[in-house]
């Protein structure tokens, strides 16, 4: 095998350089959500077995829901529908925050580790809110989801 071939990136087979085929996979907010999810999953592996069907499951499902709703919000829908999915993502993020408060109260994790997850969660909150605000701002204009019809000059 020649050295030139070994130095190239592997083929993804989907026409993109890094395998990110869908629009949502290129969104910074989606990538932040995945980072948050990874941190949550690392954290939950340290929980006592007694929390497997309760706190661990709840926190993992809520964190997963953040990412899934961001992805769903990116499809070709009305601004109102996209904003709705981002709202669901925010609710799931708030659920994660509450779960992390329980983790802290039960002393299942170090303060530094929880602080890092909460800080990333806050960045995620800001990004999702900004996306939602942008969609809501557009709804008042010439979009089909506006109740007021086209703006008059």
Q: Your description of this structure?
A:
The chain is mainly α and 153 residues long. Helices cover 65% and strands 0% of the residues. The longest helix has 29 residues. The radius of gyration is 20 Å and the shape is elongated. The N terminus and C terminus are likely disordered.
* Nearest-integer average pLDDT: 83
| Backbone structural class | mainly alpha
State the low-pLDDT regions, or none. Answer: 1-15, 141-153
Strand-and-helix sequence, N→C? HHHHH
Radius of gyration, in Å, reads: 20 Å
The backbone outline, from C-alpha atoms, is elongated
Q: Strand percentage, roughly?
A: under 5%
Q: State the end-to-end CA separation.
A: 66 Å
Helix amount: 55-70%
**Largest sheet at a glance?**
none
For the secondary structure, the number of strands is 0
Tally of contiguous helical segments: 5
List the helices and strands and how they pair.
Blueprint: H1 3-7, H2 28-44, H3 52-73, H4 79-105, H5 111-139
Helix pairs in contact: 2-3, 2-5, 3-4, 4-5
Features:
single chain; 153 residues; mainly alpha; 5 helices; elongated; disordered N terminus; disordered C terminus
